[in-house]
Amino acid sequence: MGARKRLAAEARKAALKTQYFAKLQNVPSSPRKMRYVVDMVRGMEVNRALGTLRFSKKAASAEVEKVLRSAIANWEQKNDRRAEDGELFITKIFVDEGVTLKRMRPAPQGRGYRIRKRSNHVTVFVGTKND
Fold first, then answer.
1. Is 55 inside a domain boundary?
2. What is the pLDDT of residues 42-83, one digit of tens each?
3. Could you give the CA distance from residue 46 to residue 98 in angstroms, rounded to a whole number?
C-alpha cells in the first residue's frame, strides 16, 4: 500500500472513532425493500424511530430495529451514560447492496430461469443535534 493511500485510510479510521454507528451486513432481503423501511425513519429521534419500527408491518423493520438498538448501545458505551429522551437522532442511515446468490429454477421445455437472491448491508449513524 502506498503512503498516500495508507494516510487516507488512517484518516478515515480516526474520523470513525468520533462517530457512533452500527452495521448489519448480509441481510437476506432485497435492498429495495429495505430502503422503504429506512426512508421511514431517516432523521427521526431514536425513541420515535424505534416505535415506528416496532409497529411497522414490513419484515425488514425488525432488522433495522436491531441495528438501530446496536448503534444506540455504541453511543452509550462511548459516552459512559444513558441516552435521554429527545437527545439522540439518526444522523445518517443508508442501505448498500450485498452479494447476490444466483440460482436456477426449472422452466418449461428444458429451459432454466435465473433467480437472483439479493442481500444488503444497513449502516446507521446516530448523534446529538449539536454534534
1. yes
2. 999 999 999 999 999 999 999 999 999 999 999 999 988 898
3. 26
Looking at the DSSP bridge assignments, the partners of residue 96 are: 121
Supply the pLDDT for residue 93: 97
SS3 of the chain: the string is: CCHHHHHHHHHHHHHHHCCEEEEEEEECCCHHHHHHHHHHHCCCEHHHHHHHHHCCCCCHHHHHHHHHHHHHHHHHHHHCCCCCCCCEEEEEEEEEECCCEEEEEECHHHCEEEEEECCEEEEEEEEECCC
Overall size of the chain counted in residues = 131
Distance CA 111, CA 27 (A): 30
- Predicted TM-score (pTM) of this structure: 0.88
For residue 11, is it within any domain? no
Domain CATH code at residue 94:
3.90.470.10
In the prediction, which pLDDT does 57 show? 96
